[in-house]
Give the backbone structure.
Amino acid sequence: MSAEQVYATPMAPTNLLYTSYLLRVAYERPFYEGIAAFLPCYWIYWEVGKALEQKGSPNPLYRRWIDTYASAEFEQIVRQVLAVTDRLAEGLTEPQRQAMQQHFVMTSRFEWLFWDMAYRQERWAI
């Protein structure tokens, strides 16, 4: 698939829903809620990258993806995001931490749906 084809392909419904949720949180909510919403993307990609690294892939494109997300460099980024998230949460009230948790859980669900969407090659029904 060419770059032109990729950019001309409409986002799948789940992808549009997930990214719209992330953007809404980033624009409308406090920073601590935004970082909690984005955290699953970092953390899950790292965990999946590590798991797939053990299995490998004969496909060079997938191998590059695995190498990126299983890398020590990406691990450092994830650990930094986790540390910032923890530091932010320390100074918050219980309701503020609960808001962070709600976004984290929601976007963790969206991550699962995102992977499932790709596996099923989700398309618009209409």
Observations:
- The two ends are 23 Å apart (CA to CA).
- Residues 13-119 form a domain with the Heme Oxygenase; Chain A fold (CATH 1.20.910.10).
- The chain has six helices and no strands.
- The chain has a mean pLDDT of 95.
